[in-house]
Amino acid sequence: MIKWENCNPDFYQNPDVVSIARSMLGMKLCSNVNGNKSSGIIIETEAYAGASDRASHAFGNRFTRRTSTMFEAGGIVYIYLCYGIHALLNIVTNVWGIPHAVLIRGILPLDGIDTMKQRVERSAILVNDGFGPGKVTRLLGLTTAHNGISINSDSAVSLYCSNFRFDDSDVDITPRIGVGYAAEDALLPYRFVVKPAKAASKAKEAGII
DNA sequence: AACAAGATTAACT
DNA sequence: GTTAATCTTGTTA
Q1: Positions on chain B within 7 A of a protein C-beta
Q2: Shortest CA to C1' contact from A68: nucleotide
Q3: Which nucleotide lies nearest residue A178, CA to C1'?
Q4: A14 pLDDT more than 90
Q5: Distance from residue A137 (CA) to nucleotide C4 (C1'), in Å?
Q6: pLDDT tens sequence across A77-128
Q7: A165-193 burial by CB neighbour count: b if 16+ within 10 A, else e?
Q8: Which residues have C-beta within 8 Å of that of residue A116, sequence separation ≥ 6?
Q9: How far apart are CA A62 and CA A83, in angstroms?
Q10: Residue nearest to nucleotide B6 (CA to C1')
Q11: According to the model, what pLDDT value does residue A80 have?
């Protein structure tokens, strides 16, 4: 039986955003919006290393109304609109003043399936319906209105750890998606993926599903 | 004040 | 494989 515990606040302060992105795989991401609770196991992440990373909105410490969220101390969410349609969810990391973030690109749907069905107007939720950064926020009911809120059990967004981990052999490490404009930084191995079908079978073995 | 581009998705052919 | 949908943001004038 898996026991989920509130993520330690220190977890978000770690200076190594790439290692945080890897260790978030297998953790449980929960939302509580208008009293509707839902959750999923994180199966895909990307690290964005702030000032030194050409793919980051905060490259060169660019500080604007939008990026200001990332300069806050780790442990809050950065949610922005992409292509005018999709809300993308990031976990802000590192200490105040260093704009690191981890983009949540995929979850395995877990709790609150009925709520998710309503949100996507479908009669069923499949294993890959949370695979894709815009689909994550849609399933969880998160929007840009949630930008900047802190991550804890009383918040609309919370994150939980357990002794469950995906093995390295289950994790694909690749360059990040859609950042071709980032010159040499586009090639960095900052994306971590567990394919939905594999994640589902591992979660089943562990008794999570 | 105007404009080009974007950390995407679903529905096409 | 291609493309439309859709709109905020940051940059330039």
Answers
A1: 5-10
A2: C9
A3: B7
A4: yes
A5: 22
A6: 999 999 999 999 999 999 999 999 999 999 999 999 999 999 999 999 999 9
A7: bbeeebbeeebbeebeebeebeebebbbb
A8: A38, A109, A125, A129, A139
A9: 20
A10: A83
A11: 97
List protein-proximal bases of chain C (any atom < 7 A from a CB).
Answer: 5-11
Q: Determine the nucleotide nearest to A81 by Cα–C1' distance.
A: C8
Q: How long is the CA A111 to C1' B5 vector, in angstroms?
A: 37
Extract the tokens encoding A48: 């964005």
**Cβ of residue A65 near strand C, that is under 7 Å?**
yes
Output the six-digit token pair for A46.
């990307």
State pLDDT tens for residues A132-159.
999 999 999 999 999 999 999 999 999 9
Q: Shortest CA–C1' contact from A182: which nucleotide?
A: B7
